[in-house]
Specification:
Elements lengths: L1 H25 L1 H18 L4 H16 L4 H7 L3 H15 L8 H8 L8 H8 L5 H24 L21 H24 L3 H20 L4 H18 L2 H21 L1 H20 L4 H18 L10 H8 L18 H27 L5 H16 L9 H23 L1 H5 L5
Length: about 450
């Protein structure tokens, strides 16, 4: 009898789950909630997993198909914030027609740009959903957990899923130090806005908790591991915050404080000293011995990419052509900087310019500027979107971060969700009255 009862209970539970799925299929509110929860899951997975994010995005698009109203969605595609990402992907696809690269290389080069096609769906959905902030809270909490793991594996490297002897492997639990630094910089810069807001409202406990989180990110980058790109972008992002949200006297005080704390951190942190010292050391080794150091290789890639661009300045050499151009331009043995061959010049502008010329560069910067202008305004969502765009633009001076998997999805998810929230706030009751509310 007890066994039969257990079987009936399991059958009842499965039937209940099945009925919830069916009710969600017929209930637009439930379908919207499901899409929101999948977006939250993607944000949680982003700092940890590549395959998890890919699967999550596919599930989210499938969930979106159940709530999409095609006429409003097609009208929303007419906005520049949607037209320009689509145009860049279309140019990448068209660029396969005049490229000399093998067809496999051409389509492989199209793939990194296709993530931009998710942006219009994110704008549309989170313009109608009130749960956009859930996505950012989930990402922040996930990064806080990653920060804790970073401290743990810094003291016990055997717990890391990465080999500690890898470059930048110290304090890395998953992925790499560049991706981790991008996450921590973004979280620390974004938290500045709610911290100041809470302090002005005299909500000291909440402000203290967020300050502790931001300080944890900063201390981790100072004493565990940090990328040189983060060292460049972090001051820019904080300077933008100071200029837009603080008075000049406060800015002056903060500048003096930042200089003192920065000098103190550099003095106390061997990791920070080693990171900053590599700037001069890598350049000197490249110039004197032609060794393929990080900075030396970038200078070599940029010089050659500019030459490739001048050879085909209007529409470029075509999609996927970069590696073949570097192979033809390589001189000397592979162990030297001039002999290195790569398919990515480590600069987003040059990556676009080599393949699609001036046309591609114009579309790229028009897209960045359209997204940047979207977030001119007050509010946390606008601040988050502004920081995401700013970080991507500046970090793309040293990497092709828009087309890289991790940093590219940070941009798409951040701009898409924050953009939808800003559009929702601007549309007001008129939009909310005609959409399904959570």
């Amino acid at each position: 009898m007890m066994a039969a009862d257990r079987v009936r209970n399991k059958a009842s539970s499965l039937g209940s789950m099945f009925s919830q799925v069916l009710s969600a299929w017929h209930d637009p509110v439930a379908r919207t909630r499901n899409a929101d929860l999948i977006a939250v899951l993607v944000a949680v997975l982003l700092p940890w997993s590549t395959s998890g994010v890919s699967i999550g995005i596919l599930l989210w698009l499938a969930a979106m198909a159940t709530v999409l109203e095609w006429r409003p969605f097609l009208r929303s595609l007419q906005r520049p914030i949607c037209v320009l990402p689509i145009a860049l992907v279309a140019l990448a696809a068209l660029g396969t027609l005049w490229s000399d690269a093998p067809w496999q290389a051409r389509w492989h080069a199209v793939a990194p740009a296709t993530k931009l096609l998710v942006l219009p769906f994110l704008f549309y959905h989170f313009e109608r959903s009130a749960r956009g902030m859930w996505v950012f809270v989930a990402f922040l909490l996930s990064c806080i957990l990653l920060m804790a793991m970073s401290w743990i594996v810094a003291f016990d490297p055997s717990l890391s899923l990465k080999r500690p002897e890898e470059p930048g492997g110290h304090g890395i639990f998953v992925k790499n130090y560049i991706a981790q630094s991008q996450e921590f910089v973004l979280c620390a810069a974004v938290l500045a806005f709610p911290i100041v807001t809470l302090l002005r409202d005299r909500k000291m406990l909440q402000a203290l908790l967020l300050t502790a989180a931001a300080a944890g990110f900063m201390l981790n980058m100072a004493f565990v591991v940090v990328s040189r790109t983060a060292l460049v972008t972090m001051p820019v992002m904080l300077a933008v915050f100071a200029m837009t949200h603080l008075k000049w006297r406060t800015n002056l005080l903060l500048l003096v404080t930042a200089v003192v704390l920065g000098a103190l951190a550099w003095t106390l942190s061997p990791q920070l000293q080693a990171t900053t010292d590599t700037f001069a050391r890598d350049y000197r080794l490249y110039k004197e011995t032609n060794r393929p150091t990080s900075i030396g290789l970038r200078l070599e890639f940029w010089e050659k990419s500019l030459r490739f661009f001048t050879e085909a300045p209007v529409i470029g050499h075509g999609t996927g052509s970069t590696r073949g151009l570097f192979e033809a331009a390589a001189t000397g043995p592979a162990g030297l900087a001039q002999g290195e061959v790569i398919g990515n010049p480590h600069n987003q502008t040059l990556s676009v310019a080599v393949q699609w010329g001036t046309v591609g560069v114009v579309i790229l910067y028009a897209m960045w500027l359209s997204h940047f202008s979207l977030f001119r305004g007050e509010g946390l969502a606008a601040w988050i979107g502004l920081m995401v765009v700013l970080q991507n633009m500046f970090s793309s001076l040293f990497n092709s971060h828009l087309f890289d998997f991790h940093e590219g999805w940070m941009y798409v998810l951040g701009v898409g969700v924050a953009g939808g929230m800003v559009l929702r706030a601007r549309s007001g009751p008129a939009l909310c009255a005609g959409t399904v509310q959570p």
